[in-house]
Design goal:
Strand content: 25-35%
Number of strands: 8
CATH architecture: Roll
Distance between the termini: 52 Å
Order of helices and strands: EEHEHEEEEEH
Number of domains: 1
Strand order of the largest sheet: 4-7-6-5-3-8
Number of helices: 3
Oligomer: single chain
CATH superfamily: ph1033 like domains
Structural class: alpha+beta
């Protein structure tokens, strides 16, 4: 089986990239924390979402698994305002890779720990009217065990989740307050 390259009429074998383009979206929990930063996790996330950009650093878990069309939920760790809550959703529009060209600046210098490995360009951004506390989901999501140290799984910048986990969170978010 072969496919034509965009506008060139050149046939090439269909590979794994073609299969990924037609596969259903994956779901990720993007984790931002205030940690040692002078800014709250919410301020940092809000700045990123306002720009429609999300930096991915070289140590970010699942950094190579994300593709355009994947759906993100934004989780705030740390201890400042709205910590331990999911506050927004977005879809990956495209991904800017590092390399020879400079990636767009997303975080302020005081919040940035390193140069981004890549930058996600986002669309369909929705900041929730009410943050959704993650504690009620402990032990109910496949990636979030019922353990006194449940927060330890939410390090590394990103967690992949199942579609069922995503739907459970999405349904809880849409329930009347």
């Amino acid at each position: 089986m072969a496919s034509e390259s965009a506008g060139k009429g050149v046939k090439r074998p269909i590979g794994s990239d073609d299969l990924l383009e037609n596969s259903p979206p994956s779901h990720f929990l993007m984790i931002v924390t205030d940690g040692a930063a002078k800014h709250s996790a919410f301020d940092l996330a809000k700045r990123r979402l306002d720009q429609g950009l999300w930096p991915i650093y070289k140590g970010t878990r699942n950094r190579r698994a994300m593709r355009p069309g994947d759906i993100l939920l934004i989780y705030l760790g740390g201890s400042k305002g709205w910590s331990q809550s999911i506050v927004a959703s977005a879809t990956i529009e495209s991904i800017d890779e590092g390399g020879r060209r400079a990636l767009p600046s997303v975080d302020s210098e005081s919040a940035q720990t390193d140069q981004p490995f890549k930058t996600l360009r986002l669309r369909d951004i929705e900041v929730f009217r009410e943050p959704l506390n993650i504690r009620p989901f402990v032990g109910k999501l496949t990636f979030l065990p019922n353990s006194p140290k449940w927060g330890a799984v939410l390090v590394g910048g990103c967690r992949k989740m199942t579609k069922e986990d995503f739907l459970q969170i999405d349904q809880a978010r849409k329930r009347p307050i």
